[in-house]
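dude i think i finally got it to work??
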Amino acid sequence: METTELVPTNVYTEMTPNPETMKFVTDKILVLDNYIEFKDIESAKVSPLAMELFSFPFVKGVFFMNNFVTVTKDLNTEWMDINTSLKDFIKQYFDEGKPIFEKGFKPTPSAEIKSDPVASSDTEIVSKIKEMLETYIKPAVEMDGGAIQFKSYNEGRVSLLLQGSCSGCPSSTITLKAGIEGLLKRMVPEVTEVVAENE
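look at this
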């Protein structure tokens, strides 16, 4: 009879631009080529890990992507008071071999990271926008514990979906306007405005 030996998990934290979120990075792939965001305990029923994280009274959101989980806390709690306990909890959870998601759970299409491939129906402008997002913007947003997705382009206006640490971040407006909008306007002169949409 073979026994499965559990390998200890390494977990470290990274600050994000959003002061209410913290990125907990593991040495395990949590979600491959997808992201999953839970904004409340009701939506988290498919994830035992998210459910347990929501049992902490200060947790207000959970976002899984690649090898990290981004946790959003309430405004009344300081990270220095909870960082170690959350990190230890996540490490112990994985060390015990507990599941991230219920058996058989598959992300819905709206939760998939869309690489926004250039479609034959895309205009040249939309193709350029998607290329800029893929090449320059998405990698930076993911490093900060978030995700960004192209939604639409209409008469100079680009709509994007921001999730994870980007959602509700006080600096996301600056990032959106000064960073993303500035880059897109330089690279795709037809772009006049970039706005964020909620899902």
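Confidence is low (pLDDT under 50) at residues 109-115.
im so relieved honestly
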